[in-house]
Amino acid sequence: MAERAGLLRWIPTEARAALLAGLAACVVFTAGAWWLRGHVHDETLRQTAHLAAVQARTTAATEATTEQSHVFERGFWPKAEIDDSGRLHPAPGIAVTLDGLAGLLPPAPPGAGSDWARTVTLSAERTRGLAKRWHAQLEAALPQGDDPDAVAVRTQARLRVERLLHRDLTAVGARYTLPDRRCTDPADAPGRCRRTVYHLVPPDDANAAVATLEVPLKAGVPAATLIVAATAWITTRRSLKPVEAIRAQVADITDTTDLHRRVPVPVARDRIRALAETTNTTLNHLEEAAEQQRRFVADASHELRSPLTALHTQLEVALAHPEHLTDAVHDALRATDRLRRVTDDLLYLARPGTSELRDVVDLVEIAHELAHEYDHLGHPVVLGPFPEEAPANGDALQLHRLLRNLLDNAHRHAAARVTLTITPRGQGWDVSVHNDGTPLAPHDLERVFERFTRLDEARARDTGGSGLGLAIARDIAHRHHGTLTAHTGHPRPGTTFTLQLPAAKTSP
What we know:
Layout: H1 2-10, H2 13-63, E1 79-83, H3 101-104, E2 117-122, H4 124-128, H5 131-141, H6 148-164, E3 169-177, E4 194-201, H7 204-239, H8 241-256, H9 271-320, H10 325-350, E5 360-362, H11 363-373, E6 381-383, E7 391-393, H12 396-413, E8 418-425, E9 428-435, H13 457-462, H14 469-479, E10 483-487, E11 495-502
Helix pairs in contact: 2-7, 5-6, 9-10, 11-12, 12-14
């Protein structure tokens, strides 16, 4: 089964849909045709048995009032007459010669009224053993001679017996009482000469009705299966046209690297439309990523050019003026240090954030450590309200770098002091770093987090800023499922950067 499923995967979708639809249709139509055939056969047999029952009752009514028996005269079906003792009574006709038929057609039970009727099924197995004996008895009882009447009787008799053999028969019986004047059997008392006439109904009519369906069904089932398979092929092919259009457009975009183009979106609101919309969304992200990469490479090249140029200049000065070698070396070291910091920042931004945040880090401990470190840098770090501890899930080195970047930015822009506070907020912590320098303009509150953004070019270059610190800080915040925002609504003048982090998850 697994190998067959594997083979199906190599078949084109249209052919696979047509094959499966054709197989399903073949099974359904074959079962339907078989049911229809059986239903027509059974219904025709039921109608025939009903008509035979009407004729049996008519025969019984006729026999009870006429002077001569008509039980074995030529009729639509073979007939047989049995008395209450189970004897097949002699009369002109054929059935009187068939030994064993009385045993297959039970008489009416004692006490049954004149309106008693019965339907008996005689299987082919029950009549098969009587075939040879019936043929011998029949030929001996048939009239001889070449006159037309004798020939007709022989032909009809043989046909009737053949219809009684090798098939399932339906015997429909009706009970009647012979008039006393016709009751000649000494074993029957006057008024009690009762008989049961059976009409033996072969399944000829039912078989003929089914035969009329054989050709339409045998031709119709394959034709209907082919129609369903072809419909499935055409429908699947037309349904996959939008997918092919999407594939062709994506292939063309891949070949031309033109990320401005988009795939066509079908009108129908189905899964193919969802696929097209998802593909366009992916192309949007790819275009944005490519544009960001282009800007990043351009900005990084521009940013690295400055320290490299300064380093190259200092080396040239040292070679041209050996007496200034010491100053040139110090300047070169500063340029190299800045180049190292920019390179470290670029490598961090290029690193995927896939590490799991399982460690518990105390934000209060990091804040105290950094505040103590910045005491000698000119602007003191004033610690605001602090809880005893502020546990959060994350990477201690990354959170340490985040707060350091915020404090570096605050020191570069502060006028007199920097304030650091940690306050609980719902299921997390708010870490705020405030500087009392010139507030940011409203349109710069988001722009400062973009890479290589400088709002004051001269001051940034003098203090060694690269324009990556806040971008790295926000990236670390996002990796820790938090947010980092800037606002100027602080009660004191200046700008406040607020980091929101979820609290550490306690183990159950």
